[in-house]
Prior knowledge:
The chain has no helices and 41 strands. The protein is mainly beta.
Amino acid sequence: MNMIVLEGPEENTLTLMGGTSTPPTGSAIYHTEAYTLDLISGELVQAGTLTHPIGSGTVVNYSGRLYVVGTYELGFGSKRAYRLGDDYSLTDAGENPSPAAFPAIGSRDSLVYLIGGERAEDGPFTNSSSGVMVYNIATESWSKCTDFPTSIAYSGAAMSHDSLFVVGGSVSKDPGEIFSDKFYLGTITNDSTISWSQLPNLPIAVTGGKCALISSDLFFFGGYSANGLLGQVWKYSFQSGVWTQEISAPIGLAQTSNFFALGGVLYVAGGISSKSILSYEAKTGSISVSQLLPQVGSVTLSECCLSIKSHSDKMGTLSVYNIKGEIEFSASIEPQSQLSINREELASGVHIIEFKSNGKRWIQRILV
């Protein structure tokens, strides 16, 4: 699942929202769920629902306002920027005149840079782009910047002041794609001009990896090579100009995963065929992996009723608590079935929905 990851509403929490998942058979599923993950307890709570499904992308906090940029949604790559409300509403904040799917994304202050990506010209995303688009949050407008030296998609990017770093990626060719080991520095002179130069190559050609700057080093992790999914974490020292491999994760960090750097720790969430979240502590080099989404239930609220759907292949138990912790409703749910509760059966106010099945526990807060 290529969910969007950002700092949570409270200390030591992350927010995970949107994304796509692909079942064993059938088309991709676009998600609207938003979750809060407690980094201490590991508890995952569904905090709300987006007004429409989005995948990938990044969230930028500008003067206390949250913007979502570089999303992928139902056949259109990075077509719009959105203002993100406290209630997870998405409000149109400007259409990208040159959309591309899965660009590398870097941001500073009010500016968000989208590098490359796969373009769609009346067809599927099969054409890598060298274009660089800039979104200005202050004016909610798009502009074009100096092209990247080559067509590229699925690169990792990080930004510090006037320096934009782009690592790896792939170039779409018919048939197949060519993976890149290139490492570029973009020096920004103004909003429309970037001077590109090349730094020492990554020791491996990889697409779909991610970058983060911690202290004075650049970290690159995950992605996909000719040998399959990678769990490697690489560090580039600007002082020595050398790449070193730090560690290998026990799982591959799937292509199109998303990440968030918080307090010197990298949190890598989801990606193609992945339901895990990985944390890497740069100071100690330690790494851990945990389950990202329980995937045992979901809830929808309509004018007449509250509907809870079981995604588990085992029997489940449902409990609905009011804000005082008192049970207002409880029932068993058959595997892969749905149960509806009339809203009139529940008191008005905040409720906690708890669903347990197959050793997993799923919780959501909801206002009835």
